[in-house]
Amino acid sequence: MKIIKKMKRINPLTILISWVAGCSVFALTVMVILGKTTPGGEQAPLTFLGKFIYVIVYGLLILSILTIFLFRKWSKKYWIIQAILISLCCYLIVSGERNNADAAYSFTRVDTTIGNKQYIKQYEYYDNRSLRSISFFYNNKKDSIWTIYSESGKVISSLRYKEGSLVETLK
To answer: HEC states along the chain?
Structure first.
């Protein structure tokens, strides 16, 4: 009985906003950690964010549907908010699923260990199998020249790293 009385005092919009804000803070934290700790860290945070957006949207959809049943008075009064949120979530899910198949790219990684030193050369490919980038790591830190290509094969950027630090921008 006490729980029901406490729930009547809670604003459902606060729950929905808290969900999005909490997930956003979590996502940013994980992205920073992935960027610092993952070899080739430029791709890992963006890949995580692309997948985690679905968690946020599905969670928002589920919470929006639950608020209809848990907060009936509020839902009757502010039904337009519920309709907009549910419609927006469904649209994002459907359009994201359509585009999801187009966004994939693969990579090939060559690991070499000489003595106690680890060398990695990584090739990433667009879904049409054209080369996307070539990157190098030395002891799990960015090293040598990193080159990123467009789908047509032109060099987009070229950066030189030494032991994890950017030394110079070549293009």
So the answer is: CHHHHHHHHCCHHHHHHHHHHHHHHHHHHHHHHHHHHCCCCCHHHHHHHHHHHHHHHHHHHHHHHHHHHHCHHHHHHCHHHHHHHHHHHHHHHHHHHHHHHHHCCEEEEEEEEECCEEEEEEEEECCCCCEEEEEEEECCEEEEEEEEECCCCCEEEEEEEECCEEEEECC
Has residue 1 got a pLDDT over 90? no
pLDDT tens, position by position, 21-40: 999 999 999 888 887 877 65
Domain boundaries, the chain: 2-103, 106-166
The reply to whether the predicted model has a pTM over 0.85 is no
